[in-house]
Amino acid sequence: MNTVPHHPTDTPRDLVGIGIGPCNLSLAALAHPLTTLDTVFYDQRPAFTWHPGLLIDGARTQVPFLADLVTLADPTSPWTFLNYLRAHHRLYPFYFAERFHTPRAEYDAYCRWVADHLPALRFHHRVDAVHWNPDRDLFEIDHTHLAPDGEARAHGRTHTKNVVLGIGTEPHVPDPLRPLTDDPHVPVLHASDYLRHRTTLLAADHVTVVGSGQSGAEIFLDLLRHRPTGRERLHWIGRTAAFAPMEYSRLGLEHFTPDYTRYFHALPETVRDRLVDSQWQLHKGIDATTLAAIHDELYRRTLHGAWPDTVLTPGVRVRTAGRIATTKIELHLEHIHQNTRSRLTTDAVVLATGHRERSLDRLLAGLDPYLRRDNSERPRIDEHFRLVLDPAIAATGSTLHVQNAERHTHGVGAPDLGLAAWRSATILNTLTGKELYPLPPRTAFTTFGLAPRQPQIPPARRPETLTPLRDGT
Asked: Sheet containing 328-335: which strands, arranged edge to edge?
C-alpha cells in the first residue's frame, strides 16, 4: 500500500494533478521514478474506480493490453500490465489465454493495483479552486480533505509550478429524460449505474435501452441473456442510423496515433469541429464481437420457430418522456429519417447515452482572466496539452496541462487509453524541458496531410523551475 510522505506546508510542489482517473494515474506512474520531481495528485473519491457500473461480466476493453498506463512510453516500468500479472502469479494463465483484449474488470483491478502503490496519490481530497499568485509566480490549489462519510475534515492550500487537470468525464443525460433521472423513485438510470440496479432491471416486466454505442450494446446483451426465451420484453433504440460497428481496421486505428493527433491539432478550428462530429464511428460504434454475440443470442432464441420478444430500432430519438400512473414510463419517440412519431410504454429505462467532458469553468473560475479561448469560448490548448495562458504566467515557466479535455483541439484520440502513456510522457518531457521519455517521431503508415508536420520540441525550462526533493519529503 502507498504511504504518505511528509511535505512542508509552504513548500511549492513541482506538479499537482487534479483528478485520478486512468489519464492522471498514467502520469503519476511515469512520474514516480523521477525522484527530482515533487508531485502530488488529488481526487475526492475514496479510492480509484473505473466505470464500476459498467464492469459487466464478459465485457472487454476495446484497446489491447499494451495500452496500459505506461507500456507505450516505457515498457520497462514496474507499472506495466504484464508486471501486474507477474505480481499476482498470473503470467502463465494470461499467456495461455491468448487474450489481446483484457476483461474490463481486469483493467480496473490493474489500475487499482497501481494506485495502491503510488505514494503521490491523495484520495478523499476535493479540489475546490485553482488560482494564480502573482507575488510568488505559483498556482494555488485550494482543497478539502474529506472524511469517509464525505464531510469536510480539513481545508488546505498547495502551491505548485505546474498543474495537470485530469477530471475526466461525467454521465450525459439528454434533457428530455433529466427530470425522470432526478426522481429516485422512477427506474430511469444512466448506464454508469447499471450494475447497481441490475437486479431491479432483470425483474422489470419491460426494459428499454436508449443508446446505440458500446455500452448500450453490452447492457442489451446482458439483459437479453438473463431473461426468459419468448418473454424477453426488451426495446433497444438509438439515434444513429444503424447499430454500427466501430471502425477497427488497421489503417483506421491510425487515427489514434500521435501522428494523427499532431495533424488534427494543426487544422483550423472550424475544420476540427466538423471532423469531430463526422468521426463518431471511430469511437462511438460497437465492437463487432459484441454485435455478433447479440445476433447469436437472438438467433438461438428462434430455434423453436418463434421470434424473441425484442425490438431493435436505430434512427430514433426521444422527444419527451413522462410517468404514467406510478409505475410506467412513457417515451415519446421520433424517427429521424421517416419523420414519424410514436409512443413507447415501458417499466424501466437505461440511458446508454455516453459521457461528456466535465466543464473546467467552475474549477478554473479564478483563472478566467488568464485563459485564452477559441471562437466557441473553449480553452485553447497547445500541441503539448498546455492551456494557453496570459503571457504574464507563461513568462514564469509555469504550466497548466489538461488530459481528456482536449477533443476539440486534439481529436478523437483524447479519451483513448492507447494514447494515455504517450500524452503523459509528452507532458513530463514538456514541463521538465528534458527528454525523460524518448518518443517515436513516427507512429503511423498513413501520411496525414500533404505537408506532414514534425513533432515540435518544447523549449528548455529554466533549471529553477524544478524543486529538488528534500530530506523527509
From this structure: 316-324, 328-335, 340-346
Q: Is the model more confident about 2 or about 58?
A: 58
Nearest C-alpha neighbor of 50 from the set 123, 109, 121: 109
Counting other chains too, the contacts that 458-463 makes at CB distance below 8 Å and 24 or more residues apart are 458/384, 458/429, 458/430, 458/433, 459/433, 460/433, 461/397, 461/431, 461/432, 461/433, 462/397
Q: Render pLDDT for 325-376 as a digit per residue (tens, 0 to 9).
A: 888 999 999 999 999 999 999 999 999 999 999 999 999 999 999 999 999 9
Show the CA angle centred on residue 207, arms to residues 203 and 213, nearest 5°: 125
pLDDT class for 443, splitting at 50, 70, 90? very high
Q: What pTM value is reported for the model?
A: 0.93
- The answer to whether 348 and 201 are in contact (CB under 8 A) is yes
Per-residue confidence (pLDDT) for residue 393, from 0 to 100: 96
Question: Residues in the chain, how many?
Answer: 473
Q: C-alpha dihedral over 376, 381, 383, 384, to 10 degrees?
A: -160
Q: H/E element holding 333?
A: strand 328-335
| Position 75, amino acid | P
DSSP string, 250-286: TTGGGGGSHHHHHHHHTS-HHHHHHHHHHTHHHHSSB
Q: Which of 214, 171, 266, 270 is nearest to 62 (CA)?
A: 214
* pLDDT of 453: 64
Of 399, 462, 468, 455, the C-alpha closest to 434 is 462
Query: pLDDT (tens digit, 9 = 90+) per residue, 267-291?
Result: 999 999 999 989 988 888 999 999 9
Give the C-alpha separation, 390 to 258, whole Å.
Answer: 27
Q: How far apart are CA 50 and CA 115, in angstroms?
A: 12
pLDDT at 470 over 90: no
| Phi (first) and psi of residue 169, to 5 degrees | -120, 170
